[in-house]
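Sample entry copied in:
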Amino acid sequence: MSGVVAYQDESTPLKGGRGHANLVSKCKLCGRENNLDILQDSIQPYCADNTEEFRTMVVFECRGVEPVDFSPRVGFVAEGAESGLKFDEVELTEGEWMDYDENAQNPVGITELEHRFVKA
């Protein structure tokens, strides 16, 4: 099954009281309920020091679904590497983000986003 996965900060109850997941999808052909859950304790920051390498940022538990693409949107936060200034509403809908760090008096940004999924 392929499709677009949209992150939900909330989890949806699974059929039959089997727990919760961030994405629940029912197959139109067989009627099976499939799900993807973000393992909250796996979420890791990506730092400016990591820009030359891929790093694990999040782990998904997938049952019946397989992520094939990542489309960053909203819900990201950033912190100025030099000043520690927090940017709470980083929107990556256009694939990049730019702002100005008043404390460090430097432009800041996120550009050239790349991703890959690795099966465990």
